[in-house]
Amino acid sequence: MDKLVNTLASVEIFKDLGTDELAKIAKCCRRDSYPKGREFISYQDSSRDVYFIESGRVGITIFSQSGKEIGFRQLAAVDMLGDIAAIDGDARSASAVSLSDVALIRISASDFRELLVLMPSVNLRLLQRLTRLIRALSERVYEFSTLGVRNRIHAELLRLAKAHLTSASVANIHPAPTHAAIASQISTHREAVSREFSHLASEGLLEKRGRNLIVHDVPRLEQMVREVES
């Protein structure tokens, strides 16, 4: 139970709660684990549970009717998923696939909604999270409407870099995303990503080092993105 409480304490929406409140939430939770490559939430299915990632990585995707995989984002430890269906009671808006062996904490939709009623700080943090998702979606819509493929690659790389900064100007993205994963997220093909990454590497801005992707000059990358957007 102590380990479960400690994990919940690191989840964004629970960060204002005390140990006693976290212990009450823990009593409502169950643990699940899946091997790499398992789809544990399916697009349009009727499940409603909310998940918190204890360890491992999860990909959020939709498959088109033609079978093309469209990736939205990748989640890691203490990230949350499944909350949208729990809130509105509608079908799942995307699929969730384990990108590695994963350990998950699961809470039912009814218990999750009760938390939102009884714990205002959880409700507020969830609203803030949803607001960020809306802003991110608006940004992507703008990029798809205005930017070419090269510029969308730069914008996606900048998003990843900002989430993995090691200093004001350097980012160490770990594990390095595959070219196919980036291509899926910006609606292009793997070869286009490979070509642009090679170009950025030749310019000294990008370096692949084992399972790490090093961005050596994040401000320069940001300037490249902003110049096109302006």
How is the topology of this model organized?
Blueprint lengths: L1 H9 L8 H9 L2 E5 L4 E3 L8 E6 L2 E6 L5 E7 L4 E2 L1 H6 L6 E4 L3 E6 L1 H10 L1 H27 L2 H14 L8 E3 L5 H8 L3 H13 L3 E4 L2 E4 L2 H12 L1
Antiparallel strand pairs: 1-8, 2-7, 3-6, 3-8, 4-5, 4-7, 9-11, 10-11
Protein model, in words:
This protein is an alpha+beta fold and 230 residues long. It folds into two domains: 2-140, Jelly Rolls (Sandwich); 147-229, Arc Repressor Mutant, subunit A (Orthogonal Bundle), CATH 1.10.10.10. It contains nine helices and eleven strands. The longest helix has 27 residues, at 120-146.
Question: Could you give a quick summary of the protein structure above?
Answer:
The protein has 230 residues and is an alpha+beta fold. The chain contains 9 helices and 11 strands. It has a 4-stranded antiparallel β-sheet with strand order 1-8-3-6. A 4-stranded antiparallel β-sheet has the order 2-7-4-5. A 3-stranded antiparallel β-sheet has the order 9-11-10.
Query: Considering DSSP H and I runs of 4 or more, what fraction of the residues is helical?
Result: 40-55%
Q: Describe the strand arrangement of the main beta sheet, using strand numbers.
A: 1-8-3-6
**Total beta strands:** 11
CATH homologous superfamily identity of the largest domain: Jelly Rolls
Shape: globular
What can be said about the biggest beta sheet? Answer: 4 strands, antiparallel
What Rg do the Cα atoms give? 19 Å
Mean pLDDT: 93
CATH class (first level) name of the largest domain: Mainly Beta
What's the number of domains? 2
End-to-end span in angstroms?
A: 52 Å
* Portion in strands: 15-25%
Low-confidence segments, given as residue ranges, are: none
Number of helices: 9
Order of helices and strands: HHEEEEEEHEEHHHEHHEEH
Structural class by secondary-structure content? alpha+beta
CATH topology of the largest domain, by name, is Jelly Rolls
- CATH architecture annotation of the largest domain: Sandwich
